[in-house]
Amino acid sequence: MDQYAVVGNPIAHSKSPSIHAHFAELTKQELAYSTLLGDEAEFENQVRDFFGKGGKGLNVTVPFKERAYAMCDILSQRAKQAGAVNTLMMGRNGDLFGDNTDGIGMVRDIVSNHGQSLTDKRILILGAGGAVRGVLEPVLSENPESVTIANRTVVKAQILADHFDCLASSFEALEGHFDIIINGTSASLSGSLPPLKGELINAKTWCYDMMYGKGRTIFLQWAHEHGADGADGLGMLVGQAAEAFYLWRQIRPETASLVEVMRQQM
Ligand code: ATR
């Protein structure tokens, strides 16, 4: 049976095995998907060993996405832009191919599952870390009117803005309203929220949090208090997995029903 796995550290909490098992059942594919606890000193050897034993594909998660990127022989355009790899597979000639499906997973969730177009929209992205870098190219591919990156450390927003031809700002200097606001900061992990003015939201604004949780995230709570609807990143998690599955099996599984089931189980 074809073998797949997700490698990261920690890894026991990963939802990827159950997501991929669900996809396999849905699409009638015979495959096994397990977890691999990544070792700080041995990561590259673990990857080579996995493929050396005939493994078909690996997902890579924290903290190894940049190391996976560095060891690839061939990279997709979106992996190059992200500077990180979350999906690996082996080419016929033994070349290691790396892709990044995080951004396209998020964009498909926003566009297909939530029916929100990004085209011709004024988009605000909060944060300028790895998560934001990973989504910028797929967001820009939707041809928004503008993308503004706001970050606590403005110079990091400016570096990304220069690279991707967007706008950069501090939170405090943001003016006017945006059509779509995407939270890519890890602030909510510590239960905090960047200092955001309510006027960033108007009647048409829709918000997306790359984070997800049992209830409304603190960012979506802020959006709700200012009258904006939105969604959290559970669909992004399932979406990035669906795109990896598509890369490996050439079948793109439907994601909305699984998100619903996972939501009920949280
Ligand atoms: P990730 O891989 O999740 O993107 P990261 O690269 O460490 O993680 O980036 C974390 C992002 O969340 C950064 O944009 C960080 O802002 P700084 O660049 O100024 O550090 C942002 N962040 C984390 N905690 C925050 C907080 N309490 N308020 C605002 N932004 C925060």
TrEMBL record:
Amino-acid positions noted as binding shikimate in the UniProt annotation, renumbered to this chain: S14, K15, S16, T61, N86, D102, Y212, Q240
Shikimate dehydrogenase substrate binding N-terminal domain: residues covered: 6-88
Q: Which Gene3D superfamilies match?
A: Leucine Dehydrogenase, chain A, domain 1, NAD(P)-binding Rossmann-like Domain
The record's listing under InterPro entries reads: Aminoacid_DH-like_N_sf, NAD(P)-bd_dom_sf, SDH_C, Shikimate_DH, Shikimate_DH-bd_N, Shikimate_DH_fam, Shikm_DH/Glu-tRNA_Rdtase
* Reactions catalysed: shikimate + NADP(+) = 3-dehydroshikimate + NADPH + H(+)
Query: Which pathway is this protein assigned to?
Result: Metabolic intermediate biosynthesis; chorismate biosynthesis; chorismate from D-erythrose 4-phosphate and phosphoenolpyruvate: step 4/7
The keyword Amino-acid biosynthesis appears for this protein: yes
Q: Which residues form the SDH C-terminal domain?
A: 233-265
Amino-acid positions noted as binding NADP(+) in the UniProt annotation, renumbered to this chain: G127, A128, G129, G130, A131, N151, R152, T153, V154, V155, K156, M210, G233
Which keywords has UniProt assigned to this entry?
Answer: Amino-acid biosynthesis, Aromatic amino acid biosynthesis, NADP, Oxidoreductase
GO terms (molecular function) for this protein are:
shikimate 3-dehydrogenase (NADP+) activity
Keyword set includes ATP-binding: no
Which family is it part of?
Answer: Belongs to the shikimate dehydrogenase family.
Q: What does this protein do?
A: Involved in the biosynthesis of the chorismate, which leads to the biosynthesis of aromatic amino acids. Catalyzes the reversible NADPH linked reduction of 3-dehydroshikimate (DHSA) to yield shikimate (SA).
HAMAP family reported for this sequence:
Shikimate_DH_AroE (MF_00222)
Oligomeric state and interaction partners are given as:
Homodimer.
Supply the PANTHER family for this chain.
BIFUNCTIONAL 3-DEHYDROQUINATE DEHYDRATASE_SHIKIMATE DEHYDROGENASE, CHLOROPLASTIC (PTHR21089:SF1), SHIKIMATE DEHYDROGENASE (PTHR21089)
| Annotated protein name in UniProt | Shikimate dehydrogenase (NADP(+))
Please report the organism this UniProt entry assigns to the protein: Marinomonas foliarum
User: Gene encoding it?
Assistant: aroE
